Amino acid sequence: MNSIYVVLWILIIQVNCQNKTLPLQRKHHTATFINNKLYILGGNVIFAEEDKKFVGKGFFSLDFSTKFKTTQELSWNDMTNDNIVPAHSGATTVKGVDDKTLILYGGSHFKSERMSLIYNYDTIDNRWNELNESYPHRSGITAINCDSIMYLFGGFSKKERTVNEMLYLNLQTLQWGIASSINGPDPRMDYGAVLLLDKNIMYLGGRRGPKSSSLSQVFLYNTTSDKWISRGTSGSIPSNRYGFSAVL
After folding, report:
1. Could you tell me if 131 and 116 are in contact, meaning their C-beta atoms sit under 8 angstroms apart?
2. 11, 24 in Cβ contact below 8 A?
3. 209-214-217 Cα angle (round to 5)
4. CA nearest to 190, candidates 110, 111, 89, 102
5. DSSP, res 234
6. pTM
7. Cα separation, 50 vs 44, whole angstroms
8. CA distances (Å), 18 to each of 72, 92, 167, 243, in order?
9. Which of 89, 159, 235, 239 has the largest count of CB atoms under 10 Å?
10. Protein fold of 1-134
């Protein structure tokens, strides 16, 4: 039976840092699980001054290929020297079509630096590549990979506004497209999103500016029919929120 590890990024497990570089505490980073390894990249330093808000180019992984106890220490693998992605936050990542590639999209960065729209990282060859695309650059998005198509809803645009457009990228052909937004959520970022077993993508929560969205309503995007529906929720409904994780 395969073990599934859900890692919430407040490290409850001790990390062995002897002779290793310890990643800074961070938020708005990406965490991608590929072939029993968790890859951590980007993010903001917590409580940092505005001009020093990015954590830098640190790129780290944790190996979960062997069983461990929650009381034992885990050891970081520092891959910063191989990283070509500028310091950034608010990007999003998915696993590529070959189950060995990490795809990174968007994010915010220093205006003095150039950052490509998309990067891919080969976890076997330990090599980064950048794709210079002219499509919209956004941050605060959760990417969903369904049948080798990466869906990107909403987010914060470079024009400093929150949008509700649904973009998609075919990860095999690298062709972009725009899906329907009719009956979809209002503009938002920092929402939760999860791919359901019936290939619908569920979106919930998020924010537009400082105002967070209610969890009394969820939106379902059908990747087959390109249509949206909304559903009300019941029971003990959690408070409005954004910046949370959603795992199926």
Report:
1. yes
2. no
3. 130
4. 89
5. -
6. 0.87
7. 10
8. 14, 30, 43, 32
9. 89
10. Neuraminidase (2.120.10)
